[in-house]
Amino acid sequence: MDLDIHLIGLNHKTAGVEIREKAALSDAAGFEQGLLACVAGAREAMVVSTCNRVEILVVADQDEPALPERVLAYWAGVKGFAPPEVRPSLYMRQGDEAVSH
């Protein structure tokens, strides 16, 4: 089975303080466990959440092009925001771009 890496995030350059506060993940380990249990295709997850950024890295089956949207929907559900609120502030990378980021 081939795997791929996805990165979904926002930072101080792409999002204001209000958005970063809404998106912040203080319980990274709990979020990672929940994501793996609830997001189909996700095999491994890692969260980096600081005052300046929130990034979610996910290893998934290679044939999961909708995975970033499922991760965003899960993130929004956990934090209580609507995906359109943060979508303009997000960056999404896949494969080599996610790794080099």
Order of secondary-structure elements: EHHEEHHEH
Number of E-state strands: 4
How far apart are the first and last residues' alpha carbons, in Å? 24 Å
Q: What share of the residues lie within helices?
A: 25-40%
Question: Can you tell me the overall shape?
Answer: globular
The number of helical elements comes to 5
Percent of residues in β-strands: 25-35%
Biggest sheet statistics: 4 strands, antiparallel
The overall pLDDT, averaged over residues, is 93
Spatial strand arrangement across the major sheet: 2-3-1-4
Give the class from helix and strand content and strand pairing.
alpha+beta
Low-confidence stretches: none
Rg over CA atoms: 13 Å
Briefly summarize what is shown.
This protein has 101 residues and is α+β, with helices and mostly antiparallel strands. The protein is built from five helices and four strands, in the order βααββααβα. The protein has helices spanning 17-23, 28-38, 67-79, 83-86, 96-100; strands at 3-11, 42-49, 53-61, 91-94.
What topology emerges from the helices and strands here?
Elements: E1 3-11, H1 17-23, H2 28-38, E2 42-49, E3 53-61, H3 67-79, H4 83-86, E4 91-94, H5 96-100
